[in-house]
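Q: Trace token order:
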Amino acid sequence: MKRAFLTLIAFVMALLSGTKVYAYDCEVDGIYYYRISTTELEVANKVFSDQNRSAYTGTVTIPSTVTFNGKKFTVVSIGEYAFRDCTQLTSVTIPNSIRTIKDYAFYNCSQIIGLTIPDSVTSIGVGAFEGCSAIVSMKIPNGVPAISDETFYGCTALKTLVLPASVASIGAEALTRCTSLLSLYLGATTPPGCEPNAFEKVDRTWVTVYVPKGGKGYTEDKVWKDFFIDEFDGKVADVPQNGQSAK
């Protein structure tokens, strides 16, 4: 808590003064890290300023382990704002060691077309993919309990989203301005709780929500009833990343 408070103060001071305030503890092979324990690292924001925009470009592969100063660390999370505003970043490979994608981790990464989230991830923070306006499809792994507020806000190219049965709630403005959305696959047999404004600026009459055979309550739910509801065989785990051939 104390470290988070000090980080916030540093961020505010950087905004006010224009001074570069570094947000990482070490750098290895072009990736910046914050040490969260004696054995674990998280991918970090390079600096609390607009200069973070050039921190990561092109293709980035996050390693599962890193050796620094002769000691081996496991990379377990992608930190807050780690890749924020990296508009020249086109691809990120996420290893199976990652458990958490924190708030706004990929904020405004407008050139990333798609991300494969490994099954090891069990937590995705607020606004994690906000402004990722080139992402076409996304598949959330089983074990993630909720789609947080603003997770996909402004993902204007997103056509297909696959959510496992573990997702029990969808937060405020989670898919606001996802104006290209056509297909939403839900693994839950009963409707996940959903904030009324989760789909602001989305034409629900054009979106097909695929639910498991025998799923109940969707056509009566105050949010889901406005979508076209269809059934699909199998499990959402079998739906490919691009959402095709799922029925």
Summary: The radius of gyration is 19 Å.
